[in-house]
Amino acid sequence: MHFALPPRKTSHPPPYARASRSSPIRRKQLQFGGLVACATLLLIFFVTYLFSSSTERKPAGTPEVVVVTVVDEATMSEEYRARIKENRMYYASKQGYATFFPDVSEYDIGNSPRSWAMVPGLRHAMTAFPRSKYFLYLSPHGLVMNPSISLTSHILDKKRLEDIMLRDTPVVPPDSVIKTFSHLKGDKVDLIITQDREGLCQGSLILRRGEWAKFFLDTWFDPLYRSYNFQKAEGHALEHVVQWHPTILTKLALVPQNLLNSYSIDIPSRGGKEVMYREGDFVARMVGCELDSSRYCEKEFDQYYQQWKSLVQKGSI
């Protein structure tokens, strides 16, 4: 009996036949796949680098801090405004900071008190200085008395801030049930502010740039809050926002008042002599002068301005 012989294998497989791992076709497929993978990784790298450069890398000479003061041409004399600017610009020049002096008239605050302009003023500063990290807002009715103080070593350094921040403290003294967080880390703080015996002191604060800062300012300036006609306008609105919005409280640090917000006169209801300006303090503020008919802001300012100017001329500061 004869058995049929198996067909001989052809040396020319059909085009649909699977290539062996060592075939030229397979090697070309692997090479092509490797090139595609490398090109994809390079594209991701360049896109990431491009966007990180535009948002994180700061051009040389970018100021770390911007000192912001909103002035009011309608209610302040030209000399007063000039002296306010001179004081901030001198401090900024000593520390390598920048200054920003918008006018109240630049913002649509409707029928709200003119002091509300500080909020859009800060937002404006963040737009004008898109690479700066911190924004020090100082009321026009106040002076930087000690220009040798660097905000970094004075307050902003992480360890320093953790040492000085007031923890588990009523946000609105004396007995608010809403208190500052006890375990907040210094590098998580975006808003640094003080309080006196009556409440939060928005006339001197430090805000760190970021999406949270934009959210905070937009929330604070909400037309609804401006329509409430709070007795202390943006001050009471700030206290309301901080106490009722945990998202804002979680980023807030209170610091001792004299570090950022000493007062020019003795006001017993707000802390009295304990929080008055002493030689060496950073700031002297004429708090509440614009709301008290018995006081004149420019006159109070001039007393401290002459003291500051004398020290500048002597080269003492």
Describe the protein in words.
The chain has 317 residues and is of the alpha/beta class. The protein contains ten helices and nine strands. It has helices at 24-55, 78-95, 118-128, 151-156, 158-164, 211-220, 223-227, 234-244, 246-249, 297-314; strands at residues 65-68, 98-100, 134-138, 142-144, 191-195, 200-208, 252-254, 262-263, 283-285. A six-stranded mixed β-sheet has the order 2-1-3-6-5-7, sandwiched between helices. The protein has a three-stranded mixed β-sheet with strand order 4-9-8. It is elongated, with a radius of gyration of 31 Å. It starts with 23 loop residues before the first helix and ends with a helix. The model is unreliable at 46-55 (pLDDT under 50).
